[in-house]
Task: structure prediction
Amino acid sequence: MLDALLRRFIPHYQDTHDPIVRERYGLLAGGVGLGLNLLLFAAKLLAGILTGAISVTADAFNNLSDAAGSAVTLAGFKLAAQKADERHPFGHGRIEYLAGLGVSLLILLVGVELGRGSVEKIFQPKPAALSLLAVGLLALSILVKLWMGWFYAEMGRRAQSPALSAAAADARSDVLATSAVLAGLAVSHFFHIQLDGWLGLLVAALILRTGWGAARDTLDPLLGTPPDPAVVADIEALILSDPSVLGVHDLIIHDYGPGRRMMSVHAEVPADGSLVALHDVIDRTERELGARFGLEAVIHMDPVERGDPRLERLRALVEELAQEIDPAATVHDFRCGEGGEISFDVVASYGVALSDDEVRGALTEKLLEREPGCRPSIVVDRSHVL
Result:
């Protein structure tokens, strides 16, 4: 069903790396959400007037905020699809993350207002009337929201859109909210127990939880997160597939919005190799990374000396000592100079409680115990991958 819809409205809908295709995903999802949420707002508002239940009226305005969120999504995708310009050389893709954050804030606002109204209803309860029309409208809205939750989630998965994923979470919370409201009306009508305010408060808590989770999910890419370990493994495997590359470190992926990623990495190459030949290898690898992973890659070459038994022994010793401090630690840019000088970088994980200076001091102490005559020069980095 969804494929037929996408095929009709989005040419080449499977090519979600294309910014134009992603824009159309957002416009279609936003348009569907805007129209359906406005219809649900009108239906629930009518049900609220018929029943006199504050929880039903509040649920109606919840759908009105969803309509506003759909409008934000529409605007976000439209703005995010703008091409790079002089002021924004990396494009406008992060606007989509901001759109998702805007939807999250709307969810939180609705939760706060619903909670406030529900507390008032607890202290000043009023009986709510139940009618078949109101029940039918609320039941229909639950079915519509179930479909919308699936629709947004699938669209968000295909387009890899945090904004659409946030809308899916909101739709699922609406299903819970409306179901609780409908159950409360039934209990109040048949058992004469005033649950309207209490259920409204429960719904408010669910909405606030959903809003907080959606806000966190959209803030993370704005602040910067480590790349998917599976993607990292595939990238490293591709780079190391050429025998000229001896090792990989300092991999960083910069996210400028869906479909706009840049990557930098250091590749260790033989110090005695042909510079021209190695440059050709690196250039070819950068192109392959771009074609396979849809990102712009920059690879820095680090020359590595080979065949020196003393250097290999010391490097193995340093790696052993570093992993006593942090089992995940790695060592790179290892050099041996005159007069016992040893220089290298050690990469520690963020899980290590020690500061960079403490890692450096502990490793220096361990190294001097094993090699009293050495003069270590250590740079401590933190891993950008999981």
Q: What stands out?
A: Residues 19-51 form the longest helix (33 residues). The chain has three domains: 2-223, 226-305, 307-386. The chain has a mean pLDDT of 83.
